Structure to design on (698 residues):
């Protein structure tokens, strides 16, 4: 049984048809990468998975259970299991780094504050932000904010992690660190959906790659094939364009 | 005590009230444009003037924005005659509202001036625009876009402010409501109808301003907040 | 001018000074109560206005109509309307109470709008993050939105306080013994209008100016903090 399964999802921003007939299933422990030109709906797909974008039609199953997007308690269950790292990080501007990481586990999940605090500090240490615990988001660089966002998502102890444009704001030397932690998470059985344009990264970590364009999934393939011999012409165009930019 | 609201009698006065609304509109428009003009002069002095003229403008603005318009008009109406200056109620109200508006509109327009400096001037320079072109294509559109919403807002506030004229006996909308009130004693009916007319005329004004703002200046104004 | 100088010692008698001080107190009290109530009730209106629940739709519509109405009727007209309504329903003929209620109702409409646009000024990203972590609407407001929005809310709120100090002058029209009414009484007693109205202009200024300065100071400070 796949951990997440979505069937014929259609979603709109007012009139804009942003997700068109999306079908995808992801098994436990899998790392699926999403690639595609900007504006193709990758972020929207991730947002839809945590119920920030409510689909107009289609079905989503989480661990085999149908998710009713109109039911708040269903959405709460979804969000308890899926954590997201936003493309813009979306850190709370009024809280320092530590508070950003701790607030949801303590106030929402009602876990023991001391325990949460310890976990948060460990996580922040892991992403190299031990000396920034008391800093505010607007005092941090993009890469630092993104790492806080990753720590914040992990501190929720999710089963599934969604990472949007994960490597774009990171300094090259950090890419490796983040990559390592993602690999570690994967070995611990965490399911991940990753939006990234870092081809070597995608190739290395993902079990499958999804190519999206204009709101539709064009191709799903293994990482080797999608870069070397894609089935679709649009995939080829996109991939060769990206490789050329390198 | 039973009191039943009876609107029939008051509704007969509707045309009379609506004519009063025209006078309110007249006062609002005159005072607004008078205030715009005078405020523009003040804002110009404030932006380009020397230290002393600057201070004078600041004092003017501070005084007028920190004291009630009603009392300012009382002052004009009752105190100026001591210096031999007699103003009719209409003129006293108009003058008071204009002086008051000038203070606010000076501040609003100045903020518009200041917003231009940092903004798009550099872009225009790099495009090799002449000064006239800069003003026409960059500065004016920018200023209007920035200024239009707060100016519209202030115009609505001024429209409401014209009701003060009634206190001095000007027969605009509220003044006429006073007149009918002393004739019929249907106070609640009269003042609720008057309130409704104010709601309607300010809605129309907001609507027109929103349309104008959007069409000509690309300024976004919401009709319902 | 000479007459004026002659009049000054007669004007500033201990009685007149106490009289004016009391009137100033009434002006201040009217404004303060109005703003306190306006802030609390207006805050609630803003909070409910942004809810999404279908069942609260009637409440949202009511709030929109309420705020639109009272921001589009002149203070003077609202005041007279309430004055006469109170005469009919005969709950109270305390003029100060009637004026206070009117002030509160109008302040609620205006401050509610200020708070609502403060809430709206906060980036959607903050809502998204909170929602994705299962914050409820009220938790998001308390933990995330208001701690950021107050900086946007306070400066215009101060502008509004000042506007209200000045607008309470209209309460003189129904006979509330505040500053403007006091000046009219002194004027009727035979003191020159220059002196009576001139004095209260200064008293209004004394009430309003510190708030004005403080509001502007805060606006500057908060604006520079944000960068
Ligand atoms: N909140 C929103 N409201 C309206 N349109 C949006 C919103 N977010 C994204 N879009 C539009 O939806 C499309 C897909 O956006 P997005 O999912 O962010 O793409 P990607 O992440 O692949 O770059 C784009 O055309 C974008 O402009
Ligand atoms: Mg994106």
């Amino acid at each position: 049984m796949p951990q997440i399964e979505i069937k014929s999802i259609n979603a709109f921003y007012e009139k804009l048809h942003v997700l068109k007939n999306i079908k995808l299933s992801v098994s436990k422990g899998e790392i699926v990468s999403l690639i595609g030109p900007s504006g193709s709906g990758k972020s929207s797909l991730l947002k839809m998975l945590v119920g920030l974008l409510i689909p107009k039609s289609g079905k989503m199953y989480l661990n085999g259970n149908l998710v009713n997007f109109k039911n708040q308690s269903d959405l709460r269950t979804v969000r308890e299991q899926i954590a997201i790292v936003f493309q813009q990080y979306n850190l709370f501007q009024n809280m320092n780094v530590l508070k950003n990481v701790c607030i949801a586990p303590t106030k929402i999940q009602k876990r023991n504050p001391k325990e949460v605090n310890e976990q948060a500090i460990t996580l922040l240490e892991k992403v190299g932000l031990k000396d920034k615990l008391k800093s505010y988001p607007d005092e941090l660089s993009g890469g630092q904010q993104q790492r806080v966002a990753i720590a914040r998502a992990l501190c929720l102890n999710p089963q599934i992690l969604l990472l949007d444009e994960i490597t774009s704001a990171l300094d090259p030397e950090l890419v490796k660190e983040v990559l390592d932690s993602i690999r570690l998470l994967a070995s611990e059985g965490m399911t991940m959906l990753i939006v990234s344009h870092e081809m070597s990264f995608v190739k290395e970590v993902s079990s499958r790659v999804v190519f999206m364009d204009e709101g539709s999934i064009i191709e799903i393939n293994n990482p080797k094939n999608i870069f070397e011999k894609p089935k679709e012409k649009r995939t080829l165009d996109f991939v060769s364009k990206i490789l050329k930019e390198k | 005590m039973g009191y039943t609201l009876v609107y029939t009698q008051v509704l007969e006065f509707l045309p009379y009230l609506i004519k009063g609304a025209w006078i309110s509109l007249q006062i609002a428009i005159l005072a607004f444009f008078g205030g715009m003009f005078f405020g523009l002069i003040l804002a110009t002095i404030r932006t380009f003037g020397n230290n002393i003229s600057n201070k004078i403008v600041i004092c003017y603005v501070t005084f007028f924005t920190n004291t009630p318009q009603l009392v300012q008009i009382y002052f004009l109406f009752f105190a100026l005659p001591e210096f031999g200056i007699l103003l009719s109620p209409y003129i006293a109200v108009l003058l008071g509202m204009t002086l008051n508006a000038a203070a606010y509109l000076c501040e609003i327009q100045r903020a518009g001036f200041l917003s231009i400096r940092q903004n798009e001037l550099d872009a225009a320079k790099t495009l090799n625009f002449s000064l006239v072109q800069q003003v026409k294509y960059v500065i004016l559109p920018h200023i209007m876009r920035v200024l239009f919403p707060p100016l519209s807002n202030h115009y609505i506030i001024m429209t409401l402010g014209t009701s003060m004229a009634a206190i001095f006996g000007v027969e605009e909308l509220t003044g006429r409501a006073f007149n009918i009130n002393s004739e019929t004693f249907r106070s609640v009916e009269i003042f609720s109808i008057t309130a409704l007319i104010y709601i309607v005329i300010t809605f129309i004004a907001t609507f027109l301003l929103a349309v104008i703002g959007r069409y000509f200046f690309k300024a976004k104004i919401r009709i319902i907040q | 001018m000479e007459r004026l100088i002659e009049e000054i010692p007669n004007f500033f008698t201990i009685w007149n000074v106490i009289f004016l001080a009391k009137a100033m107190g009434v002006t201040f009290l009217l404004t303060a109560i109005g703003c306190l109530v306006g802030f609390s009730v207006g805050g609630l209106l803003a909070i409910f206005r942004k809810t999404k629940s279908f069942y609260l739709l009637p409440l949202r519509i009511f709030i929109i109509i309420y705020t639109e109405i009272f921001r589009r009727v002149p203070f003077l007209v609202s005041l007279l309307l309430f004055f006469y309504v109170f005469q009919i329903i005969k709950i109270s003929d305390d003029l100060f109470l009637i004026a206070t209620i009117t002030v509160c109702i109008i302040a609620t409409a205006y401050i509610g709008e200020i708070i609502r646009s403060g809430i709206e000024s906060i980036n959607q990203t903050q809502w998204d993050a909170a929602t994705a972590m299962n914050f409820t609407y009220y938790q998001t407001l308390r933990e995330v939105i208001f701690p950021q929005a107050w900086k946007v809310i306070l400066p215009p709120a101060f502008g509004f306080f000042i506007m209200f100090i000045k607008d309470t002058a209209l309460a003189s029209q129904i006979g509330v013994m505040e500053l403007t009414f006091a000046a009219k009484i002194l004027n009727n007693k035979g003191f020159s209008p220059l002196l009576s109205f001139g004095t209260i202009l200064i008293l209004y200024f004394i009430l309003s100016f510190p708030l004005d300065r403080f509001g502007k100071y805060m606006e500057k400070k908060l604006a520079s903090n944000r960068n």
Summary: The interface with chain A takes residues 125-126, 128-135, 139, 143-144, 147-148 of chain C (CB under 8 Å). The two ends of chain C are 54 Å apart (CA to CA). The first helix of chain C runs from residue 2 to 11. Chain C has one domain: 2-223.
